[in-house]
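Table 4 source record.
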Amino acid sequence: MALGGVSVERRIAEKVANPRETESALEWQLERVGSAAWQDWTLKFQRMAFGYAHDSGWHDAADALRWLDHHALLHEGAAPRGALVWYQAADRVRVACSLGAGELVGPLPSGEIAVAVLTDLSTDWVWSDPHFPFAH
């Protein structure tokens, strides 16, 4: 699968330890459902959800996706719970967090934090572990 020209190479990456564990990150996100305060800040929202207070080092989700692709950290198929899902919608790359079973949570193209079915948002996606190598 290719997301906007990004080729995916399957590789098993080491698990990353984030300041906030996966279930806590998902809870943090679900507590913000309905908020419009994160419109177009999909990458920042995910970084904050996983407990990083400072910048990720990437300009935007498309920049992060290119870096992850270059380092062979992207995967195809069904995203496991807690994975970052990178998808194309509204002429840009966006990122949300998988709840499992094809659902995700994050700032959606509508502008609000919401839970959605991935296939309702895009047909073009890949996923990665929640990895923010430059954040702190």
